[in-house]
Write a structure and sequence with these properties.
about 220 residues, alpha+beta, four-stranded antiparallel β-sheet, 1 helix, globular
């Protein structure tokens, strides 16, 4: 009787392990398919840290910052680049959409927020804004948005270079989305650039910041 009971327990444990094993493998495979985005030191981008974002191509403008599009102090501010690298760069914090995630992963949705105080009384979160009438491209503007317009992701190209994209499939997996990479285009005589969808890509790198910037 004891031997039969012991055999039954062993069989139950074996069946339980067999059932759980595929789940564990599936979870591991998911992490492999969405590796962490790395900063310039080779470390994963953390959700509790701040980062400067700079172009991966040296002549493609300065660090990402908030741009006064019309140069007259008007609001809202836009996400963009100055023509050259300047000292008053602004750090960004990335917050994953997936609850409990602590690193930013490739092709996963997150919110991006500039860590800055501005003269505009509004959020410095990135969101998809209006369509630029001249270029026909959707601009990226600073402002609060909890919907699909406020989530972005990072893709990795064939050469191992990162770029931003808008395609919030984690937020709304059943939505019909007009997905697009994020690029930049020149807007004024000072050759400042605005980030926008529906065009070229902007290869970027992530540099960990040590302090909070302001504008």
């Amino acid at each position: 009787m004891v031997m039969k009971l012991g055999a039954s327990i062993v069989i139950c444990i074996w069946l339980l392990l067999a059932i759980l094993s595929p789940v564990t493998e599936s979870s591991s495979s998911n992490d492999d398919s969405n590796p962490a985005v790395l900063d310039t030191d080779g470390n994963p981008i953390q959700s509790d840290a701040e980062y400067y974002v700079r172009p991966a191509i040296t002549d493609a403008g300065g660090y990402l910052t908030l741009i006064d599009r019309f140069g007259n102090g008007s609001c809202p501010l836009y996400v963009g680049q100055p023509n050259v690298i300047v000292d008053n760069k602004i750090s960004i914090k990335f917050t994953p959409f997936i609850e409990g995630e602590t690193v930013i992963r490739e092709n996963r949705d997150f919110k991006a927020v500039f860590q800055a105080l501005t003269t505009c009384v509004q959020s410095t979160q990135w969101k998809v804004g209006e369509v630029d009438q001249e270029s026909g491209r959707r601009l990226i503007v600073a402002g609060y948005d909890e919907g699909i317009g406020g989530y972005f992701r990072i893709e990795k190209g064939n050469l191992g270079i990162y770029n931003f994209a808008w395609c919030p499939l984690d937020v709304c997996p059943n939505c019909r989305l007009n997905c697009s990479p994020v690029g930049a285009f020149i807007i004024d005589e000072n050759r400042n650039r605005l980030l926008a969808l529906d065009g070229n890509t902007l290869p970027v790198q992530f540099e960990k910041a040590n302090d909070v910037s302001s504008i």
